Amino acid sequence: QKEVEQDPGPLSVPEGAIVSLNCTYSNSAFQYFMWYRQYSRKGPELLMYTYSSGNKEDGRFTAQVDKSSKYISLFIRDSQPSDSATYLCAMSRGSNYKLTFGKGTLLTVNP
Amino acid sequence: EADIYQTPRYLVIGTGKKITLECSQTMGHDKMYWYQQDPGMELHLIHYSYGVNSTEKGDLSSESTVSRIRTEHFPLTLESARPSHTSQYLCASSGTEKPYNEQFFGPGTRLTVL
Asked: What is the rounded average pLDDT of the residues B26-44?
């Protein structure tokens, strides 16, 4: 069983839709949870960062962590064509530990 | 401007050639990483370094080697490239500022071995 599972999609939505992206994990030691966004032919860039359980909001983006279910989510409200990218979840056991990535979900927002 | 650079961006070479993928960062970070990324697959860590003269193998076995002689420079070398080495290679770095795990990625080198 992989430590991190992420549905690769692809996911296609109309502009303005609410998007939900998810990852599940098996390692209960993970404490740091991240979402990276990767545009085509670019390197990933950090989008959201959460420590332990709870919600975090930043503009149109909300990250949720449910450690009891080993499930994390990223919500995008009022999605825009510029949100079209691959979204990768990543997690770590601690601040000095390596990151474990999901496969990434390819999102296309259609105008 | 603080950034992380990779050269070349694209490389097409024949089997058996020796290649070096360059990675440099001007962010002052101690930690640097090399990942391999194939379409539809996870980023796999192949090498990492926590400082000068420190290098470790990552989770995915790789025939490549790395060196860290200067803080800002972390090149990856393949002594004899093979078609199985065809992939995207991403370099990253991280520092001591919060969030501590944030890794900054370069644009990647897309390698094709014929």
From this structure: 91
Render pLDDT for B81-94 as a digit per residue (tens, 0 to 9).
Answer: 999 999 999 999 99
The verdict on B23 touching A (C-beta cutoff 8 Å) is no
A107 vs A105: CA distance, rounded Å: 6
Flag if A43 and B108 touch (Cβ within 8 Å): yes
B108 interface with A at CB cutoff 8 Å: yes
B73 vs B89: CA distance, rounded Å: 15
Name, in order, each residue with C-beta under 8 angstroms of A44's C-beta and a sequence gap of 6 or more. Answer: A36, A37, A38, A88, B43, B90, B105
Q: What is the pLDDT of residue B100?
A: 67
Spatial separation of the C-alpha atoms in residues A11 and B2, rounded to whole Å: 34
